Design the sequence.
């Protein structure tokens, strides 16, 4: 039964968004991973709704996360670079930019409906003080502003801090060890405990809560805690997946044991495709799809996605709705009884009509790389206006975003423009983007004219945000985050010399 | 409850082997096909046991079928060619050879336990009278000796006949139309009806039965009946899969409605990997695996596989047992209370200890192409002794068994020998065979020494059968099969001029 808020209004459902890092579409048993080691996620799908056609908003971590929390494409919310044509960009430590104050983040809005909001794990929307998640609507934070890269020397580059709320409580590779040789780290267990504690506390407080569980064990360097290390048929990456799967099971069990599963909407997805550049030991699987992280092929942006809300979303459903990570913004607002902001373009749709009533909504999926619209999907068809994996120079150095895959004229190592005559694929017959439609076919002509209209409408009304990922400076790195004094861990930043960030691909 | 035979002995379970044609590992929802259009097969898996590591004995139709029915590798039972090194061969109409009389086929043996045996669909073990399935243990047949290729002119080449038992009842493209333009054919409906009728009749007779349901709608030219045409998100191939899925559902439902599901062992699999050379319109999906039909990469020989036996095989299990199509021979004998022949090598294992008690058996999977051992899998490791897809000449003509895939030094277009230093892959971390282990690694050395022992043992004791696929003659084709007189459809064969068959890849 729904509870009541202090105001007497019926209490909206709790919201748990589980966002994985670099986990691929093909990494779950229910999506066909041959080792099938995700019994909890597979059960979550069997008890809920599986989305085989769910997309990230970008093939990289931070733009994708900014899109989730704003409901807007990175080209609108500023999480892109204009330093070069069609470049992938994210938020390394030295980035000057971050989430603009002008953006309304999901937790900010949920507060208005009485939610208590917590982020567990990776923020990745900026390192400078003004970008702190507690300044953008979150009430609590346990996690880090960036990936768990390292170890760094704390001279040229500081180790990434781990925060509890406003203050750092240590750094990766120091207070929060990660053994790169063995892959051992207990971070997923910490993140699990934070989630369980938060759920218990908010339940006791009778407060509706929003938990953004943004864990990162599947991002290279992948890690798992000792009980999971060496247990997967898939190696270390699989160990990380198994620990995550186990944790998801524990979170869902807690919701059931507390009797709040029917009042808690849970969604599981990932921020971008598996990083095949790190495969096979440090990267996952994109199943039958082409290429991986960094690319605008399906492997870069099609994501595992499961919705779970017992008593509301019927069990065992598969939805072929084209879904987007940005829909989690609008859907969450809808769950809270809120309308999305009306003063700006919101790209996310409310998926509740699809999840609850089975309505399918027509909508395009846009695939951007930096400032460039690379591709669009409409219904079953995908058109590529630009193709690029990475440069020949990088490729020859062994950086390969499509290992073992090579589709002639498609997985190109030069930026190829197809805006006049896009490469079009039928993703139903050809999910692997291997067989472009013949330009001369009626099918091609029909699709192209529909696509063109949609793209023109999109581009005509597009107002790009101020690009946040153009300028870098060593001085903005995490030298002396708040709380460092208490720990005696303040480092001295160098002088600020802002410069153009370099984005190689 | 088990019935009793006329002899008073308890009645062994019925056996239904559903063998698909060119259906790929990735074609079922439960194996991750993105359109997820196989609700009946997915339910069959949820009610039974899924095998993600199940293999054909050959990447082509007839050798694979000969292996299933004899429990023996094609190199032993004669279903190979020695006309050239490492050539794929099967049984076209003009083949002189077929299943040798010296081989003991599964239905022959099951007869001894009182089974009534029926083959529905494609036989493919030889066209000449001595190879007729009713001479090899089957009591009934509705189907064809070959694929539904055509239409032929009945002058240079006759259309393939369709048999009922001993006599032909028509020919494909004549009495049994297939519309190549629309893809319409009602053959799957005919094959479904034959299965349902046989099950009902044998149930009424209280006879244990063996149904070998070898349907072929997913072999190019793919077809579906009118109610299914145009219904799949995947195009015509998907229409065929949907009709098959629907038919599987109807067969399982009948078993349940008759109350004999607990006394009927059902196994679903395919004869070889999806024919990517015919994709995307006429070929399926091998999921994350490399290449397809014709090759000894995983895409050529790893198959979908589901065991279903309510009340005996517990629901919802996944078995990582390395399984083989040849195990269906030995397992079926075991179900019937029979021992496999002891006067010859049987490659198939009895899977019942795995399916019923969860025992995992160590065993190698051998990947032959013609007379050549191309690769072996042991545990999680696969070693390639030879790599070849097809010749440069064929490849340049557009014949591509690995479209969009290219693993340097692996998907070779010349026959590359690696017998001294095999390419070894870890199929758990790297199911797509993209990242060979480093020759210098300890892992490589460990695995190689174990592999070498297994292969040496195999090769030392191997006695190749007389190759059946070496000699062809136009005269042996289906000019005047028995029953042609009644139909007025006898054609005049040309003079017999036996010659070496040519196998291009
Ligand atoms: Ca990521
Ligand atoms: Ca076949």
Sequence:
């Amino acid at each position: 039964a729904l509870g009541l808020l202090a105001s007497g209004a019926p209490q909206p459902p709790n919201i748990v968004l589980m966002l994985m890092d670099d986990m691929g579409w093909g990494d779950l048993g229910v999506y066909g991973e041959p080792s099938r080691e995700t019994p909890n996620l597979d059960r979550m799908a069997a008890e809920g709704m599986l989305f085989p056609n769910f997309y990230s908003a970008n093939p990289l971590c931070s733009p994708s996360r900014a899109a989730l929390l704003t409901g807007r494409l990175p080209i609108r919310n500023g999480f892109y670079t204009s330093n070069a044509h069609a470049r992938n960009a994210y938020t390394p430590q030295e980035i000057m930019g971050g989430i603009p104050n002008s953006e309304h983040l999901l937790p900010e809005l949920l507060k208005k409906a009485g939610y208590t909001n917590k982020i567990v794990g990776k923020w990745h929307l900026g390192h400078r003080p003004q970008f702190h998640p507690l300044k953008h609507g979150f009430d609590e934070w346990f996690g880090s502003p960036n990936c768990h890269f390292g170890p760094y020397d704390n001279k040229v580059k500081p180790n990434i801090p781990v925060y509890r709320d406003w203050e750092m409580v240590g750094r990766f590779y120091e207070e929060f060890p990660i053994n790169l040789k063995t892959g051992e780290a207990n971070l997923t267990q910490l993140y699990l405990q934070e989630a369980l504690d938060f759920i218990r506390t908010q339940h006791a407080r009778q407060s509706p809560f929003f938990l953004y569980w943004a864990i990162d064990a599947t991002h290279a360097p992948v890690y798992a805690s000792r009980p999971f290390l060496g247990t997967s048929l898939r190696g270390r990456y699989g160990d990380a997946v198994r620990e995550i799967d186990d944790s998801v099971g524990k979170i869902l069990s807690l919701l059931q044991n507390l009797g709040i599963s029917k009042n808690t909407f849970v969604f599981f997805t990932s921020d971008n495709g598996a990083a095949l550049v790190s495969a096979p030991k440090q990267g996952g699987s994109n199943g039958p799809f082409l290429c991986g992280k960094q690319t605008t092929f399906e492997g870069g942006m099609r994501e595992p996605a499961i919705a779970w809300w017992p008593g509301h979303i019927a069990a065992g459903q598969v939805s072929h709705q084209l879904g987007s990570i940005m829909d989690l913004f609008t859907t969450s607002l809808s769950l809270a009884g809120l309308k999305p902001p009306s003063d700006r373009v919101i790209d996310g749709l409310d998926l509740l009509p699809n999840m609850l009533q089975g309505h399918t909504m027509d909508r395009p999926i846009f695939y951007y790389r930096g400032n460039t619209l690379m591709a669009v999907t409409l219904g079953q068809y995908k058109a590529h206006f630009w193709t690029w994996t990475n440069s020949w120079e990088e490729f020859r150095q062994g950086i390969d975003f499509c290992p073992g895959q090579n589709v002639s004229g498609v997985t190109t190592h030069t930026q190829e423009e197809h805006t006049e005559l896009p490469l079009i694929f039928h993703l139903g017959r050809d999910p692997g983007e291997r067989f472009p439609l013949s330009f001369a076919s009626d099918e091609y002509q029909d699709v192209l004219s529909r696509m063109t209209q949609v793209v023109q409408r999109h581009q005509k009304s597009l107002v790009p945000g101020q690009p946040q990922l153009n300028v870098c400076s060593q001085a903005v790195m995490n030298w002396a985050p708040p709380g460092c004094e208490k720990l005696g861990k303040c480092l001295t930043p160098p002088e600020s010399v802002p410069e153009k960030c370099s984005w190689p691909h």
User: Anything to note?
Assistant: Chain B touches chain A through 44 residues (CB under 8 Å). Chain B has twelve helices and 21 strands. The first strand of chain B starts at residue 14 and ends at 20. Chain B has a mean pLDDT of 97.
